[in-house]
Design goal:
alpha+beta, 34% helix, 7 strands, globular, 7-stranded mixed sheet, endopeptidase fold (from Nostoc punctiforme), 208 residues
């Protein structure tokens, strides 16, 4: 069954203002603007097409940890990504008080260099389309295992004692990681204050 999460009311914040608010293990979900993203939206019923995790590199560099098609597992500078895609990333925080964001972020860091789980994508589509007669990909606590984006984030959440949305990591789509029961929306990240003001102005014009 497709999981459809309604979009939160956007809380736009410029990058420099969110730096002091981010904790290791926060989740950043991105809306898509590519053909691949459109296919993910069609299959999952969610506007989110990519899942990542946020964390800090010593001493003060905010990073994005992800696995991405054509790029595999990697850590990249968060500011650079937001400059490329302002307003595309929504940040969520797991609600569980037992969640260790540090442990989850460590898992993500150890996954850098792992391969993207292309074959898992077909499996998740078949399982969503035809239910349970397609065998799942077994969960693994090895960060180096091949995974697609939300599969990696879900495994990292488990490593940190966080919420588990599905029994199998391979069944988790990016939109599942926005479930209000388990995750709290914080804000949408823009690169500059001018972009925030432009977005707010357009929103006001749409409502008028």
């Amino acid at each position: 069954m497709n999981t459809v999460q309604s979009m939160p009311q956007i809380n736009p914040i410029p990058y420099d203002s969110i730096r002091g608010l981010i904790r290791n293990g926060d989740i950043a979900l991105s809306r898509g603007c590519t053909l691949e993203g459109s296919l993910i939206t069609e299959v999952t019923g969610s506007p989110y097409t990519h899942a990542t995790m946020l964390g800090w590199a010593t001493p003060h560099t905010l990073m994005i940890g992800e696995t991405r098609q054509h790029c595999d597992g990697r850590l990249i500078d968060c500011r650079s990504e937001i400059v490329k895609w302002p307003g595309f990333y929504d940040v969520y925080r797991p609600r569980s008080k037992k969640y260790s964001g540090d442990a989850a972020w460590t898992f993500i860091c150890h996954s850098a260099g792992s391969k993207y789980g292309y074959d898992h994508l077909l499996r998740v589509w078949l399982r969503r389309r035809f239910r349970t007669w397609i065998d799942p990909v077994s969960n693994s606590d090895d960060p180096a295992m091949d995974r697609f984006c939300s599969e990696l984030v879900h495994a990292a959440l488990r490593a940190g004692g966080g919420p588990q949305i599905k029994d199998f990591d391979c069944d988790v789509a990016p939109g599942d990681l926005a479930a209000p029961k388990h995750f709290r929306y914080l804000f949408t990240v823009f690169a500059t204050e001018d972009q925030v003001q432009s977005y707010q102005l357009m929103s006001e014009e749409d409502l008028s």
